[in-house]
Hints:
The protein is α/β, with parallel strands linked by helices.
Amino acid sequence: MSANIAEMEKRRDAAKLGGGQKRIDAQHAKGKLTARERLDVLLDEGSFEEMDLYVEHDCVDFGMQDQKIPGDGVVTGSGTINGRLVYVFSQDFTVFGGSLSARHAQKICKVMDAALKVGAPVIGLNDSGGARIQEGVASLGGYADVFQRNVLASGVVPQLSLIMGPCAGGAVYSPAMTDFIFMVKDSSYMFVTGPDVVKTVTNEVVTQEELGGAVTHSSKTSVSDLALENDIEALLAARDFFDFLPSCNRDDVPERPTADAWDRLEPSLDTIIPPSANQPYDMHEVIRKTVDEGEFFELQPLHAGNIIIGFGRVEGRTVGIVANQPMVLAGVLDINSSKKAARFVRFCDAFNIPLITFVDVPGFLPGTDQEHNGIIKHGAKLLFAYAEATVPKITVITRKAYGGAYDVMSSKHLRGDLNYAWPTAEIAVMGAKGAVEIIFRGQDADGIAAKTKEYEDRFANPFVAASRGYIDEVIYPHSTRRRIALGLRKLRNKALENPWKKHDNIPL
Ligand code: HXC
């Protein structure tokens, strides 16, 4: 018996060395952790249970039959994060560059299937040279098997991808179909074709970092939700982030104790709106003063800053927050901000996370750039997402809610459950000056000024909307947290279903 155990231990130890000490040292020299070290940081200590440690590839071409490394370049299994179950895979760059063979893919598929069966999230740590070149089409098939599971799991269990090394070619499409992507600065990149191919085809000269590094993808493209400084920071951020997520679409949001009183008043919010309508203020302050302990996990902070998205908690329970940001482009809705918020709203709706929307929006951004790039179709995404969402929806209009953007931002008409306005709210078709210049075209400056004043007096307030029941109550800004907490309590058992359909046809 002891000989058998010794044999098992010998095999385990050999497998855990991956591609060997030399390659582990090379990984460390690049400032990267190994696949196993990453799991040690991500998961609760001692919680990792590995599967498929002894799986090997079955390739016999190009001398591969003589190069077998147990585990085949990916470490898979399950563990816990702050006590909650998660399934994981972590690609091992020290084994054939973390490249994906048929068996490697089979291991990933196995953890995804297990996660789907029990209703637990999947976190993938990606660090791979792509398709295992020696295996050819078997590797491509393996990718497709993973893609298919990404799609089936979408909306059923949360999926998070950490990109911690190369991720190129078709390999990018698995992370792209997960819910969130975190990238590590300087050591990770994602692109469909690399700088060499780009140079050959288009003559452009570009570095890997510029083409598809963490900063590019979290500012320009929005492929990535966050850019983190290094492996440790990314893994710790993933742990914090995980705590906000329900385990699956059948579960309620996680709940944790908080010392922050549900009815905490914030007198400073009574004066946060500047006297002039054109002066900005930081919507982050409103958000932080509303959520538990001021803790707000923002996503995509570097992309489309005119809208803010992220998670917070109220009375210890996760809420999704969407807010116009007056500090960037006056909080206007444009293509990027619409797309950014729409996907977030849909994630929250899929996973039973209540939506809190703070509104200060002057409308949609005018211009040929926006029109020719499809603001109609992209703006419709956000409208569609809010309209189909059946989770609790609480809206607070702090200042401007103009035009179509008023409708879009979780208005009463889109089945907003509780729609509040601060006394500073202005709910109208457009700003007073623009409105008067259209309906009183041709009047002299004095006439325009007088009519503008009249328009402001009539419409630059929340009471016209409130008199029609579009606003449930005009509230003191200082009582915003209290109102939201009370609203969420009331809405805990909200039951609302959309008509049966195979799936909708959101304007993609
Ligand atoms: C097999 C691979 C590999 C791959 C790397 N290796 N990529 N083995 N298949 N795709 C091996 C190398 O042979 C090497 O083995 C080890 O991994 C480390 O690679 P290096 O090149 O030494 O490392 P580095 O200099 O850091 O460069 C990393 C790299 C480069 C940029 C990823 O290896 C690279 O360009 N690889 C090929 C990438 C690629 O073209 N992949 C196919 C893309 S097409 P030793 O034994 O020396 O340690 C694709 C299609 C997917 O992925 C389609 C899905 C639908």
